Amino acid sequence: MKKFIRGFGFAFKGLHYAFTTQVNFRVHVFAALAAIAAGFYLRIDAGEWKWVLLCIAMVLLMELLNTAIELLTDLTSPGYNKLAGHVKDVSAAAVLIVAIFAAATGAIIFLPKILTLLVHAA
Ligand SMILES: Nc1ncnc2c1ncn2[C@@H]1O[C@H](COP(=O)(O)OP(=O)(O)OP(=O)(O)O)[C@@H](O)[C@H]1O
């Protein structure tokens, strides 16, 4: 049990490291908080919440994996290495794919509601 709780401590240490050193991770955390706030404000339904939460989890998960891959690459290949560059580029591409998916999902869920709100306000 003690080991299990200690594991949480390491995980929070990892989150703290990513948040304090990675600008992209911070941007995605704030985007996630904005999406959650918008979800409450626009009263999205349970099905829509599932998509929003899935997108948030996927983007943050990929950001964390990308950070870990970058660190490991720097550790194993501190100098210039073409392959190390490819590793980082492919890892960054994986983040881009989920970020595009999340942006498209956000647009599908939120845009119609925002437009309806604007039409009613006009
Ligand atoms: N050791 C290396 N050898 C060759 N190219 C590299 C190497 N390290 C980085 N690069 C190239 O530079 C790009 C940026 O690398 P960098 O480590 O600065 O990543 P980053 O995405 O800017 O991450 P961060 O700023 O969060 O550390 C990589 O995507 C890769 O194309």
Automatic annotation (TrEMBL):
Substrate binds at E63. The chain crosses the membrane at residues 25-44, 51-72, 92-111. It is a multi-pass membrane protein. InterPro entries: DAGK (IPR000829), DAGK_sf (IPR036945), UDPK (IPR033717). It is found in: Cell membrane. The active site is at E63. GO terms for cellular component: plasma membrane. Its cofactor is Mg(2+). This is Diacylglycerol kinase family protein. It comes from Mucilaginibacter psychrotolerans. The lineage of its organism: Bacteria, Pseudomonadati, Bacteroidota, Sphingobacteriia, Sphingobacteriales.
